[in-house]
Amino acid sequence: MTEPDTSPAQEIPPQHWLRNAVFWLAVVSSSAVAFSVAISSVTMGLAIGLWLIGLLWSRGRSFTPTPLDLLFLAYAVAELAVACFSPEPMHALVNAKRLFLFSFVYLLSYAVSDRKKLALVVGIFVAVTAVISFVEFFSLSLARGHFQRLSLFQMVLTEGGIKMIALLLALPFLFDRRLTGKWRWLTLLSVIFLFIGLVLTQTRSSWLGLVGGLITLGFVKDRKILIALVVLIIVFLLVAPADFRSRAATIFDPAKTSNLTRIHMVETGWKMFMDHPLAGYGDIDLRKYYIAYIVPLDDAEGGHLHNNVMMLLVTLGIAGFSAVMALFIRIGGMMLSAIRKTRDLLLEGNVAIGCFSAYIGFHINGLFEWNYGDHEIAVLLWTTVGLSLVILRSASMPGWERHS
Fold this sequence. Notes:
404 residues; mainly alpha; 68% helix; globular
């Protein structure tokens, strides 16, 4: 007897319902990072549960292999193996829960089955984050004549990273003349709210991530974006309030305390790695081990190292670090392939470019923050990876219509 066809175009009703439920839960989970970790986590858990039910229902036929599967496995094995040798193994094993965030790659591969759903994932996230930026603007306050950093729903560094990623997903559409009518105006409005919100967070690492993402956009999409970036920086330095110009001026000032602590953490992190190069310390709070090497300048220094590269070296050792770097390099190549295959398409092409620009912005941001260890930012990282994979295989998906 012939097995039923469970492709998105001809699914039996329960499988179709499950796919739609997983889709909406994933959308809520990725968008909710802008205002609630709890909602994001609960909906992620529900989505994973329904996805597993879908896999069982289809006897595994609804599972879509990806080019990243073996690298995900290598990273997971390294994370769990390192935990066994950690000075705090239970703590390291608990923190290994970040591996569940890989699920966004598979949730989106399973659930995003047409162009409308692709547009909804990006559009809802950008719209929610833009609206939140607009609402947060009214919470802006002064203290002793200085603007307080904007952080109504999340801690300020997280706020900056979320807005940076949303901006870089939206900007490719704004620079595409094929986008017309109300969609262009809605995109412009979203970009304005997000940009103002990002500036008001005063998160310098996210500002640098945005600049890096815009440079990427300029080379990948349109060189005129590079000119626009130069103009934007000049205007900012000329007309921005003194508080914000001062924040920008201190980005590379080694005498500033927050910069000096980051220098300390990179230097000390290297010493910690050299003392434990193979197994690392495991995915744990490093403060008690860090202070054995240096006297911190403030209480926040050393719990983590405010640098993705150094943090991964210290916590995972050389083998785990190599697995993660191989994964990141493979992701970058996969995203570039998605761009090349969809460059002439309005939706798929711009989402692919936005995902890659956000990916570059994430890594630049991560030179100064442990943003990979931030649940909200990691959710968005794996969401962009999942969307890029969907775009890469969209040409061969049943029922997928591609329009320029």
